[in-house]
Write a structure and sequence with these properties.
Elements lengths: L1 E5 L3 E5 L13 E5 L1 H11 L3 E9 L2 H12 L2 E2 L3 E4 L5 E5 L8 E5 L15 H4 L5 E5 H6 L1 H16 L3 E5 L9 H11 L5 E3 L2 H7 L9 H15 L5 E9 L5 E9 L2 E4 L3 E3 L8 H14 L4 H15 L11 H10 L7
Parallel strand pairs: 1-4, 1-9, 2-7, 4-5, 4-6, 9-10, 10-11, 11-12
Antiparallel strand pairs: 2-3, 7-8, 12-13, 13-14, 13-15
Helix pairs in contact: 1-9, 9-10, 10-11
Length: about 325
């Protein structure tokens, strides 16, 4: 199986734990981006992956390409342009003070990507699944047009489409997100969206109190309106502190909602990329024709492991995830 991702990769500058952006003279640097994180994880799971993006034509852009290559991600469709590389600053929180992201990505190389920049047929040659997110749609009107052209190609060539709603209020309004989402949903087969996405972006509502009943109700309605969407999923997270969260995955297919066991994640190293690790776990399981119960459990365990790994991407292998599923936390693999 070969999976392609379409999105921006940025330079991440993170403070040390307990240090605020306004009071630091030192940043830890690495690269990250939602679609790239999913591809790197899938590469670790044994799939062939390909990144479609545009980076700056300088040492930083070359660094991004080297980063992807080091994780076995095909970079033949990574273009280089004269515009800058986007940056995001991560202020790492502590205790009851949450972490904070500050974007510095305006006029980046990827956000300036145009329809004429991409040979879609060549870029998606041999691809079985195409993955993208709402962040890509939020960056420019031109990217939304290009994405729709890619989605039409996918539909005409039986390429599975995976979409992560991934709403970011700092990038666009709910009204803009709603319009773009309604445009792309007829092409989507695998959807990552939760209760807030259904209510705030799709304007859905119901009187159910139980969060699981409510989620299934929304998924039933989405599936009825868009029968092309055959898989849906989301996570439920409870935050006790920046360092202690609980996490559970909910996976919907064939009219049924499957819920994983709930994990307590203690001593979190890096929460960024946890959702991308969950998505990669879902995609791996679906493409590997796993049972529905396995899909939910594997995705949750993959995300839990990511919280113990510094950086944006999950570097765990399938056996690492399955070991957590089977043996629980903390046991030494001998």
């Amino acid at each position: 199986m070969r999976v392609a991702g379409f999105g921006e990769i940025m330079l991440r500058l993170a403070t040390n734990k307990g240090i605020m952006v306004s009071n630091t003279n030192n940043y830890n640097s690495n690269y990250g981006g939602g679609e790239a994180n999913v591809l790197i994880s899938l590469s670790k799971f044994g799939f062939d992956t390909k990144m479609i993006t545009k980076v700056s034509n300088n040492d930083i852009g070359e660094g991004i390409i080297s980063y992807l290559n080091s994780h076995r991600v095909d970079t033949s469709q990574v273009q280089m342009g004269e515009e800058r590389t986007g940056i995001y600053f991560l202020e790492v929180g502590s205790g009851n003070r949450g972490s904070k992201v500050i974007y510095d990505r305006k006029d980046s190389a990827f956000s300036n990507m145009k329809v004429s920049d991409l040979d879609i047929e060549k870029a998606l040659e041999g691809v079985d699944l195409f993955h993208f997110s709402g962040i890509t749609l939020a960056l420019s009107k031109e990217l939304r047009i290009l994405t729709l052209k890619i989605l039409n190609h996918c539909k005409n060539n039986n390429i599975i489409v995976s979409y992560d709603s991934n709403y970011r209020a700092k990038l666009w309004s709910l009204e803009e997100a709603r319009k773009a989402t309604l445009d792309i949903l007829p092409f989507v087969n695998i959807l990552s969206a939760g209760i807030l996405d259904a209510e705030n972006i799709l304007k859905m509502n119901c009187n159910l109190e139980c969060k699981y009943e409510k989620l299934k109700h929304y998924y039933d309605d989405i599936n009825k309106t868009y029968p092309n969407i055959t898989h849906m999923f989301s996570s439920i997270r409870t935050i006790q502190s920046v360092s202690v969260n609980t996490l559970q995955c909910n996976y919907y297919t064939d009219g049924k909602l499957y819920t994983s066991k709930e994990y307590v994640i203690d001593d979190i190293v890096d929460r960024v990329g946890g959702g991308d690790a969950l998505t990669a776990g879902i995609l791996y399981s679906i493409l590997s024709n796993k049972e529905s119960e396995y899909v939910a459990e594997f995705a949750t365990a993959a995300s839990v492991i990511k919280h113990s790994i510094y950086g944006d991407a999950n570097l765990a292998k399938v056996e690492d995830v399955e070991n957590l599923m089977k043996n629980g936390a903390g046991k030494i693999a001998r």
